[in-house]
Specification:
The chain is built from 14 helices and 12 strands. By secondary structure, it is of the alpha/beta class. The protein folds into 2 domains: 243 residues, Aspartate Aminotransferase, domain 2 (3-Layer(aba) Sandwich); 126 residues, Alpha-Beta Complex (Aspartate Aminotransferase, domain 1). The strands form 2 sheets. The protein has a 7-stranded mixed sheet with strand order 1-7-6-5-4-2-3, sandwiched between helices. It has a 5-stranded mixed sheet with strand order 8-9-12-11-10.
């Protein structure tokens, strides 16, 4: 646009950055399935693409949109959230030190522990949001990555991105923020000092539980970023064109889905907090949450679709409640248009840090009154 006019994020998402296909003037983004591109007689690539493992117009569109929404300097799509996260950690040299939180995506935490057990990295795990514990764990000159996840899965713990970033940068470390639960609708970690943002784009970025995808967004195109670009291509950890197109389609409704889910989650958390059959609710939108003030400062427009609660009666009660729910689908994931419940500890198995009676809810876009009725009925004696 000309002049001083700048579209708001909602408009950028809805119109997919206003892209129009040049040949046909199609408004809906196209899918480019080609894996190869023709050279000119001199051997150059006049179309700017060489091979689809390195670049493809379809996922470049989705990357451009996500990058704009996060306020970054570059974005990369990956075949899954784990592919995105592990590619970040694979940039480390043997013996480099990592600090990670107690509450984080369980599969990634287990993978980091396996790397540490093999001597591949040094690893310290500290309580979420505990700045003193983080500072004590930092090893100046040796700590390379401080990984944070806020709000954290599954217990909705909150971390102050700005204070962690300040401490990590003094020690010479980069901060990588898993912002899967927030999405750029609610929080933009790069604005608070993070160096990289990681998403399991499978979740609310896509929003329809039909795409496996991951993403990394950078604050700056530095040597680490160039290494990530290089490694993604060499490892073949890319997303297919059709999946990238589905992800782009999902992101176009991001600013409708995320606020609705967050509004419903807040109402549900409030109801559960006063329910006689519930002993504990973990949702950063509640003033009683220990991270509420920080979340209110660094998030805007809501506190996300993820909440957890512990019914009275222990693990047996949690299992009963999860099985009694009718509208909440008992399934492993989060961030879709349908609401989900999961009795988390049995899924993670031995060694989990999750309480045995914790139920994780992912709130979708259904009528919140229906969801409340479903919870009330399942919690009844």
């Amino acid at each position: 646009m000309s002049g001083d006019f700048r579209e708001r994020p909602e408009t950028l998402a809805a119109q997919a950055l206003g892209w129009v296909e040049p040949a046909t003037r199609s408004v809906v983004p196209a899918i480019y399935p080609s894996t190869l591109y023709e050279r000119a007689p001199d051997g150059s690539y006049p179309g700017g693409h060489t091979y689809t493992r390195d670049e493809n117009p379809t996922y470049e569109q989705a990357e451009s949109l996500l990058n704009r929404l996060e306020g970054g300097d570059g974005a990369l799509l990956f075949g899954s959230g784990m592919a995105a996260a592990t590619t970040v950690f694979e940039t480390l040299d043997v013996g480099d030190h990592v600090v990670a939180p107690e509450q984080m995506y369980w599969t990634l935490q287990r993978w980091l522990e396996e790397l540490a057990a093999r001597g591949r990295i040094a690893l310290d795990i500290v309580p979420n949001g505990d700045l003193a514990a983080l500072e004590a764990a930092l090893r100046p000159g040796r700590t390379k990555i401080v990984w944070i996840e806020t709000p954290a899965n599954p217990g909705a713990a909150i971390t102050d991105i700005a204070e962690v970033s300040e401490a990590a940068h003094v020690a010479g470390a980069r901060v990588v923020a898993d912002s899967t639960v927030s999405t750029p609708v609610l929080c933009r970690p790069l604005e608070h000092g993070a160096d990289l943002v990681v998403h399991s784009a499978t979740k609310q970025l896509n929003g329809h539980a039909d795409v496996l995808a991951g993403a990394v967004v950078t604050a700056r195109r530095d040597a680490l970023w160039e290494r990530l670009v290089h490694d993604r291509a060499y490892r073949g950890a890319v997303l297919g064109p059709f999946e990238a197109w589905l992800l782009l389609r999902g992101m176009r409704t991001l600013f409708l889905r995320v606020p609705r889910s967050a509004d419903s989650a807040l109402r549900i958390a409030g109801r559960l907090a006063s329910h006689p059959a519930v002993r504990d609710v973990r949702y950063p939108g509640l003033p009683s949450h220990p991270g509420h003030a920080v979340a209110a400062r660094q998030m805007s427009g809501g506190f996300g679709m993820l909440l957890s609660f512990r019914p009275r009666g222990g693990a047996a009660a949690a299992k009963r409640v999860a099985g009694a729910l009718r509208l909440f689908r008992n399934a492993t994931s989060l961030g879709g248009v349908e609401s989900l419940v999961e009795h988390r500890a049995p899924v993670e198995g031995p060694g989990t840090r999750v309480p045995a009676d914790l139920l994780r809810l992912s709130i979708g876009i259904e009528a919140v009154e229906d969801l409340l009725e479903d919870l009330d009925r399942s919690l009844a004696p």
